[in-house]
Amino acid sequence: MVDRAQLADFLRRRREALQPEDVGLGRGPRRRTSGLRREEVAALSDMSVDYYSRLEQSRGPQPSEQMLAAIARGLRLSSTERDHLFHLAGHNAPTRIGRTDHVSPGLMRVLDRLADTPAQVMSELGETLAQTPVARVVFGDETRFTGMAASVGYRWFTDPGARAVYPEEDHPQHSRNFAADIRTVYAKHGAKSRAGAMVDDLLQSSPEFASIWQAHEVRAHHARQKRLQHPEVGVMELECEILVEPELGQTLLVLTAQPGSESYDKLRLLAVIGSQEVAASGVRDRGAE
Q1: What domain range includes position 178?
Q2: At what angle do helices 194-205 and 207-215 cross, to 10 degrees?
Q3: Least C-beta-crowded within 10 Å: which of 56, 125, 215, 219?
């Protein structure tokens, strides 16, 4: 059962305790209170202002586990605070064994400061948990997928559209890389894990994956040099930096380009596109209030 009063109080107090600088926002000259505004938390949680406001006002339906996970990320809650949020909303706390969709607050703080850079937090199975606006421009909104399709490795072998971001001549190497990534998680968690279920599905649905899997290739490191393409700017040559959060098995991927290069200019253009989309989204949310 939902404890609406306590849920509303917890959300309000966590929002008021979170400062704009904590999430990469400017304070601005018109801010009268020290905490975040409701519309800012709603935007950080990818939900409407009306929906979030109703929760703080002890109104509305019981929030789903998916919505609670989004709010936990938006409010930068710790794992303990996230579990408390779930309990107040009448749900069991998500298991921390083998998988968590809750992004490390430390990784989120780093991500908040990379608003003009393509960066995203990934689970060990290749599920995108959080993205910067520029990353959404480059890769699309990868947080919208569910089930096995949430894994970029699974989509690579089952959805041809997932390959559009990479030049076609690079596809064979990426196929081997994704298969090797899945094998690493499979070896760690075993045949009865989510990785095991994914392997069984891919062996049946993708002849390409089955052929590569049979070769039993493994690899220890991601290639730092990557080539990505975008319909607005074409091909970019980028460097990929990785920050690992070992406790939750999450990684922060950050893509950069050599200053002064053509790819650097292309990334700057995509950053402008990303900021424009964020601004347009904010206008839509305010108009719905």
Answers
A1: 105-277
A2: 120
A3: 215
